[in-house]
Specification:
mainly alpha, 5 helices
């Protein structure tokens, strides 16, 4: 039996499509759970990757954008599963950078 980290529900909300990131960010403002903050930053980075994939798909090359979008989607699903299983690992290299770059989300 694993111990549920504080803020797990907020971390899971962060991965909800469209508005989940925003809801989780505002829900986490009162207590600033480290687990939730980590996943909020990670989801913000994944959101930016989704946005980039959509731009590549529509403006540069449809096939390359489709492949990039699929990779980002698979990453999103894996990160959601990691949040559900109480882990703060994510995309190799990128998740670490997301934690460094998005300090404004603390």
């Amino acid at each position: 039996m694993s111990i549920k980290p504080e803020g797990k529900k907020i971390a899971l909300v962060a991965y909800a499509p469209f508005v989940g990131f925003f809801l989780a960010f505002f829900l986490n403002q009162d207590y600033k759970y480290a687990f939730a903050t980590w996943h909020i930053k990670n989801m913000f980075g994944i959101f930016l990757l989704f946005l980039t994939a959509t731009i590549v798909q529509g403006q540069i090359d449809t096939a390359a954008g489709d492949i990039f979008w699929l990779i980002v989607f698979i990453t999103y699903v894996i990160c959601f599963i990691l949040a559900a299983t109480n882990r703060t690992i994510g995309i190799p290299f990128l998740s670490e950078k997301f934690q460094q770059w998005f300090t404004f989300l603390d």
